[in-house]
Each structure stands twice: as structure tokens, then as C-alpha cells.
Amino acid sequence: MKKLALTLALIMAVAAFAGCSSAPSSSAPSSAPSSSAPASEPASEPASEPASEPASEAEPGSLEALMDQVLAAGDAEQIPMLMPADLNGGAKYTPLTEENSEYNLGVTRDRYADGIAAEAAMTSVPFSVCLVKANSAEEAEQLAADIEANADPRKWICVEAESKIVDFSGDTVILIMTSADLAEQLHSGFTAAMAE
User: Fold this and answer.
1) CA-closest candidate to residue 82, choices 115, 109, 132, 42
2) What does pTM read for this prediction?
């Protein structure tokens, strides 16, 4: 009986660690402090369509329309399947709330007026793009600095984003955490969209 219990415990431990070894982790050190917030994404790939497919036409000038432009600037082959709308309360992108703001940005929800995130549907894929409207253009620079200092590129526990980019334009702040080349593409998309 003890052998059976030990065998089952060993199988469960191996299965638990298998998820952590499914994607290579970057060896780049993180300058951001670790977050103790729990992961909020599902551990398996949903069967529904990715959130990157338009659920409805985004209103021009909205964060959703800006996120569409930012993601369109990235190599579609490198952008993972995003959290589907049925797991986002019907929204195309994950709304940033009091419950998930610190996990995604490293700052509390009361620091900004509105925010959304494009997150990979699988937690073994380090991909996150957050767009935030600061309370004012004057507050955007400090908000960006605080996000830079506190957003955790290791929030997925098992994997780490290779690159973390924080930038702002006017009252809009962007946080990109993913592979280095994709992060640069998405940042270029943000810069181009904000220059329009």
C-alpha cells in the first residue's frame, strides 16, 4: 500500500513539473521584483477561437482599437493564441480590474482610468501586452515609471519574458512582455499608432 501511495505521489509531482518544462525559460535576469499574485490564466489551451480575431469592430480611438493596431504590427506567427472572449466576460481583450491589475502591471487599479491586456491563453507562453489610460497626460510619465519598476516579467512562474518594454504617449501607457524581437515589433506598432 505504501509503495502504491509513493508511486502515485511521484506521478503527481512529475505531472506538476511537466507544465513548467514545456517552454524554455529565458536566462536574462529580471530587474523587477517578484509578484506573489497567483496566475489568473487557465493552464490549458481553450478550444475556442483566439481573442485576436475580432469579436466586434473596436471603436476608433479606444484602447481596443489601439491594441488591434499594436498586435497587427507583430509577426502573426509569433503572437500566441490570446485569451478568448468567453473567458474575458465577452470582451475581446482582458479588462484590467482591481483583482488582476497588480498581477499584470505591478500597480493598483486606482492609479489609472482604464486598461486592457492581451494575454496568451496558455500560461507556458510568456506574452502580455497591456494598454492603460492614465488619469491625465501629466500622470502618464510617473505611471509608466512605476509600471517599469514593478511589472514582473516572471509572472507566469514557469517561464519569463525575454523583454519588457514600457512606454507612454500622451495619457496612454503600454507594457509589453514577450520575446525580444516581437516586443520591438509591437513597440514600433504602438509608436506608429500614437503618431497618427
Assistant:
1) 42
2) 0.72
